[in-house]
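TL;DR need structure tokens for one chain.
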Amino acid sequence: MSAKTSIEWCDHTFNPFWGCTKVSPGCDHCYAESWAKRFGVKWGSGEARKHASERTWAEPIRWNERAGKDRTRKRVFCASMADVFDNEAPTGTRERLWSLIGATPHLDWLLLTKRVGNIMGMVPDHWQKRFPRNVWIGATVVNQIESDRDIPKLLKIPAPIRFLSCEPLLGPIDLEYPKTIWPDGPQMCCDGHDCGCMGKPADPPLIWGIKWVIAGPESGRNARACDLAWIRSLRDQCNAWRVPFFFKQIVQDGIKIPTPELDGKRWVEMPG
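>> reply
TL;DR here they are.
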């Protein structure tokens, strides 16, 4: 839990529990695992997840009250030290989280996961057709393989805002790769042409339905290389289709590496 956070694209972080299991190449050098070890939390399947305290659960209520009085909206990243859609989440924790989200209408809850396929089977029944307006669903994709596999699943989630976290970015990602939105091949469009639009207006193939893209390199002592050309490509794809793009700064050995041509695009404006 954090009333203030160093994560630049949110206002608060909230962790209903700590602990997770690695499921992606992006998990190899997990910062959360390293941090959790200091508090005796072990990573992996079968390891006990650490429950949040009652004080932690009370914090979003205070954030919501303050945001209501100020007539503002605050973004809450849930969960930076876990995955809400973990198969081994503590019993009853998700149900309590759904109730908390319902009780905090002035907070926008950013649920970022590497387990997009679990989402619809774990959310409440009354979310099946439409998610609450204050719930954003994000998928972490770190390379083209994960992009092609998980973004089609994300696009099926009836959330008001769907977003991507391409962090740590471990390879180039083409958000216009058509197989991601049409895995069975292009369909006949409204004009009878094999263009893949499926009767919809001409939108970009994959980026259609994505409202925000976060990108950044891996950080830490064992950080893997990230070619800035990969980040520039994502930025340019987002700019071409007016999708908000957020570039996380590069820090090596505690020093920020200047990237002026990217820093000018570090913006987080979102649709209302």
